Structures are given as structure tokens and as C-alpha cells.
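Box 4.2: Ligand-aware structure prediction
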Amino acid sequence: MIDAGMANQRGQWWRDAVIYQVYVRSFSDGTGDGVGDLPGITRRLTQLADLGVDAIWLTPFYPSPMADGGYDVADYRDVEPQFGTLADFDDLIARAHQLGLRVIVDIVPNHTSDRHAWFQAALAAGPGSPERARYLFRDGRGPDGAQPPADWMSNFGGPAWTRVADGQWYLHLFTPEQPDLDWSHPQVRAEFEAILRFWLDREVDGFRIDVAHGLSKNLVEPLTDLGAASVDKNLRYGLDDHPLWDRDDVHEIYRDWRKILDEYSPPRIAVAEAWVAPGRLGRYVRGDELHQAFNFQFLLTPWECGAFTEVIDESLAESAEVGAATTWVLSNHDVIRHATRYALPMQVDAAQWLLSDGTQPTIDAALGLRRARAATLLMMALPGSAYVYQGEELGLFEVPDLPRELLQDPTWHRSGHHDKGRDGCRVPIPWEPDGPSLGFGPGAPWLPQPQQWSAISHARQVDDPSSTLRLYSEALRLRRQFAGDGSLRWIEKGPHVLAFQRESGLACVVNFGPDDAALPAGEVLVASGPLTGAGRLPADTAAWIV
Ligand code: NOJ
């Protein structure tokens, strides 16, 4: 187990940790079947240690029919054979800890797979049975119950209710293969507490809690129709007493989980994936609840000076109110990679990847990358913890034109092929410039990589001081000395330039405007792009100065 002597040892290690998200299917294929796996990850851990991250977060690797990339778990205490074995998991943890990397695993408590033993038992046992009581079965509306119990929509499109052979309906806020559990049932709570302990005993350092804002629901009948407000995608709803999302009593679950995490030595942590209305996130990180919550407001912020200063102020204030450290995140496996997002024309329908006139948008990739690099220096200078999504350190962009027949995201199918879904940010990592999968594994990858990724493969970037990979490792190295947890003092807040100073004296300046900007006096430690000949900061560039 990790203990004193590691690089980041101030007790509450997560407060300034840089946590690297490994999307297991797409990181590194050790077996050659074209799909990433645990042995593949273990083999690449040295590269992550060299990058300078503090921890990794593994997306679900449990047995799963893969209706939603593994977020449909059939058995919470084992490893999907495609990804390896429990012994492979133990090897991964041991190697990571040897290298000083902590490991966080994903826990998916809102729903199970429909192949989970509990759901199979619920189907077999019939209406009114104790087996059904662990899920959310209801009778339908109308004289013969043929109408769903409410008009609720699934987050991936289509209805959130599916009817079973005996006529009852069950709730699934995601795909029909992901039935929602009833968290008011004591067996559900006990089971997940046991699952936490199972992985804690295998020495994981923490959990990322999937759909953390959705566990508690109010399904007391009569159910109310909610229309578009039944899906959680849009944070603006923020309805009081919403029957499905961000209910006050969800926090009781996390208070219980915190007690379990604290039983271990050193205490383990948990981070909430909670898409909630502004101002509601701090509730998840109160002193007796979770340690972190992803800051999706930051991820959703458009490339605009005022929008960034505002979200930084709001995020810091919200976490300070409860004594938590803020987190920052720019990309993950559910959103368009930020190197593309920051160059998307405003009018683009990102679901279909089309402009309103039906034409494909032209994306200025160089502009996107320039902004992405600047955003990285901004994020790494801010007080708190930062999440990095695999491949962003290579400057990978979204792949919007994958062959339609290869798309796997359920969103694509559930939206009637309207929404292209999230496969474009899940394309396997290019490690080498050549080979059938650019070093991802010995065989062809499960999603094809763009030709241009050869030139930006890990191997090509590692010795190039101007590469995005080297920018990340340099920023992470300097961050240990100059940034991390704490506070900031604003030097400039727009209209085009944002600048702040950290306790160490480090100043971070970001130029969002169209023209060059002056830099404060001092030594430039690192910049996201070349400065002008006169030593000024060009547009869409950031620099750190002491
Ligand atoms: C959030 C996960 O990040 C996403 O990939 C998944 O589809 C949903 N939760 C449902 O589990």
C-alpha cells in the first residue's frame, strides 16, 4: 500500500491530485483482440508515472454485456473476461502502487445490467415479489396497463420504461439493459456497501460514483409527467423536489459510504459524477460526505474570458463554503474532446455533427489545439485537483466521422441514428507512429484511428519539447512546486485576458482575445505556445510566470 514517502504526501492527497482517467476499452490492448484490457494498462503505467499524474481512475472493467461500454454491470465482484481476471487487477494495483500511483475504480450503483442475477430473478419471480422490489417495477397506465407509468425519457433517447412479458414496466434512466435499482430497499444499500468493501479490501484508493445524483428517487404514485425535464442532461432544470435527480436524501447514502471509506487506513476517497444545477454540487462534498465532485460547469464553459472567470469564482466559492477542494475537468469519455470543442462553430449540432444547413462543419484543428493547450495551463494552475482524460495529453481531437456501422454508443441506436453519440472521444490511444493500431495493441483496434494520429502518437511526442505531451509533463512537474491546493488572487479579469496569482508567487495569464497581450514582469516558466518576438502573449495562449 502507498504510504509516506510518496511525492504527494500531505494527508489529504486528493485535494491537489492530478487524476488520469483510463477508459479501459481504449487505453492499451495487451491481448491483441483489439480491445483495451487490464494487462495492457499495467504495461503502460510507467508512462503515466513519467507523465507525473498522482492517480488513475479506471472506467468499469466488471463482467458486462457492454450495452453501455461496461456501465451495465452484470457482476460487481469480478473482471470482464475481455479485460482480464481478478489476478490481473491485483497485478495492476500492485504495480501502480509501486510506481506511486493511486487507483480509483468506477462504481455503478444507479442501475445494474439486465443480465445481473438480481434482475434475472426479478423477471422470473413476477409482480409483487421481493425480487422485483429491488428494482423499480410499476403497472402501466390505461385500462390494460399498456401505457408506460409516466412519460419519462431515457438519457440516451426513447422512453425510460420498458414493459416485460407479464405486463409490468420497469424504469431505466439509461438503456433498457440498465434497469434502475430501488435505493430505498435495504438490500440494495447493504449490497453496495459490501461491494465497496470488496474493492477496498483489494486495496483500491477510491471510487468514482456513476450517476451519483440519481440514486434516490420518488416513485410514490401517482407519478407526474416530466417531459424533457426527466433527463439529467440539462443542468438548468434544477427543479425543486425533482422525482429523479439530485434529491436531498441521496446524501444519506454518501454519509454511510464515507464512514466505510474512513474505516480504512489511510482513508479512501470518492468522487461524485453529479450533473446538478449550479450551486448544488457543494452538497456532495460536505465534510461527512464525498471528497470530490466533478466540476462539469467548468467543462461546459465556452472559450470566453468572462465565462471562465465567472466559473472559477463560483467553483472556488462553492467548495470553500464546505471546506472541500475544487476539482477541474475539461474532457471525459462522455463529451466532445476539448481540443475539438473549443473550435466548434457555435451553430453546430454536435449530436449529428452538422450545421443547420445540413453541411459538415469545418473545424480549425490548430485553433482547437492552441486553446486546449492554453486551457490545460489554466486548469493546472488553479487551486484544487484536476482530472485528465486519456489522450488529451497528446492533443487528441474528436473523431466525428467514424464508420456508422462501427458505432457502439447506445445513444446512436436509441436516438434513431440522429445522435452520433460518444464513440468519437473513445477511439483507442496511439502509442506508436506505426502498426495496425498505432501501438494500441497487436491487432486492429475496435474503433479505427485517424491517419493523422501517427504523427501525434506518444512515441513521437515524448522527445519533442514543443509537443503537447511535454507541455503536460512540464506543467505537472511545475505544479507540484508552484500550484496545487490553496487559493488565488485575481490580477486581471477581462475583457480579454485573465490573470491570477497563487500563494507561491506563480502567475497564470490566459489570453482569450484576438490581439497579443502584455505579460507581467518575471520569468516565464512555461507557455502553451510560442510568445511573440516582443515577448508578448499571443491570442489563445497561456503562460506561467514567477
Ligand atoms: C455516466 C457515465 O460516464 C456514462 O458513460 C454512462 O453511460 C452513464 N453514466 C450511465 O451509466
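In the box above, the bound molecule is 1-deoxynojirimycin. Residues 512 and 540 are 5 Å apart (CA to CA).
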